[in-house]
Amino acid sequence: MKKALLVFLMITLVIGSLAGCGKQPTTQDKQEGDELNSYTFKLGFNTTEDSVRGEMSKEFKRVLEEESNGRLKVEIFPTELLGSEQEQIEGILVGSQDFSLPGGGAMSNVDPVFGAASLPFLTTGYDDAHAKMDGEIGDYWKQTALKHGYKILGFGDLGFAQVTNSKRAINSIEDMRGLKMRSPNEPVLIGTMQNLGASVATIPFTEVYLSLQQGVVDGQFNPMDAIYQTKFHEVQDYMAQLNIFYYNINFLTSEKLWNQLDDEAKEIVQKAADAAIEVSREYYVNGDVEYLKKLQDSFKEVTEPDTTEFRKAVQPVYDEFAKKIPADFAELLNK
């Protein structure tokens, strides 16, 4: 009887030790001497590898893999390989990808408060923009994202939009009246142009050059790098430096994925995202200086109008937008 009991106890110990060998690594396991989980992430975006998003993704990959000694890796999928910008935002939640770099306009489909990124003259320059993105407005967006299952790691730059046209130099708001402007199909952008006295045609970005060349529209608005790279200066004569819209990039992941990461992985991912965001900011702060020189040589005239009257004219855009968002956020925007 004692012999049978001894055999039973030995079998129980063996089974218990085998079960322990199959346990998944955790943060606690590392403290006991084992390794943490390895991860291979997917990062997708809607532009090319040589775009600012491409440069951000390369820096994210470099820092992530170096800081983790290869424990954390990322595969990069540019040019909508994982779907459109909106599809990739949705893919973050369903787990078909781990990170994406959508703009504020696309994020407005998640919650209206993200549409504030497109409000005219929201910021006065890059220093002010970065202060707002890293301050109360950015914090509000981050908290809103969590309510929808997302986590925003920070905000990168996509530049300030300048206004070009083929009719006349813009020195005051009066010079905007009567122009037919191309706009993306976003209510805030359309409303801004209309309140400045222009009419609007919504045209896909890929068709803008031809539309300008053929006179379907008189002008358009985009950051200077986009204006130069797409050669809009070949079919436009005038540019006004208005800094009318500030475009941002949301470094996006899901709250679910974030909560699954161990503390060390979270720290490294955030550090890599911060480095990527800094790349985008340096790209535009320094790049705008160079692109301005090139465009001054390309356009007949580049002006820098006083924006006081422009700002007054677009107040109805803010009033209309305020109806769609919580009152506390509307107050924050008007600070």
From TrEMBL:
It comes from Anaerovirgula multivorans. Gene3D superfamilies: Bacterial extracellular solute-binding protein, family 7. InterPro entries: DctP_fam, TRAP_DctP, TRAP_DctP_sf. Keywords: Receptor, Signal, Transport. Pfam families: DctP. Belongs to the bacterial solute-binding protein 7 family. The keyword Metal-binding does not apply. One of its GO terms (biological process) is transmembrane transport. Coiled coil: none annotated. It comes from the Bacteria. This is Tripartite ATP-independent transporter solute receptor, DctP family. Residues 1-19 form the signal peptide. One of its GO terms (cellular component) is outer membrane-bounded periplasmic space. The keyword Signal applies. NCBIfam families: dctP, TRAP_S1.
